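Hi support team,

I submitted a single chain yesterday and got back a structure, but I'm not sure I'm reading the C-alpha cell output correctly. Could someone confirm the output below corresponds to the sequence I sent? I've pasted both exactly as they appear in my results page.

Thanks,
R.
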Amino acid sequence: MPTAPILQTITRNKEGKTLIRTESLDEFAKNLTGLPAGAADEQIVFGNINIDGPLATVWTPYKFYYNGNFSH
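Hi R., thanks for writing in. Yes, this is the structure output for that exact sequence:
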C-alpha cells in the first residue's frame, strides 16, 4: 500500500536547540499557494536522491527569497 510523502526540515533555534518540523505535501502546497504571486523565489539545486525500497532521501541545498530579500 503506497504511503503519502512527508517533508521534514531540521533547523536550530537561537538557543541552539535542534528542531524538526514535519509536514505533509498537502500542507506544504497550501502554504505556498497562500503567498502573493511572485513573493517566493526558492532557488534549489537537486543533488543526490537515494532510494532504498520505499524510502527516498534527498539533500537539497537552496536559497529562499521573499519579496526579493534573502530569507534563508
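A quick pointer for reading it: The mean pLDDT is 88. Let us know if anything else looks off.

Best,
Support desk
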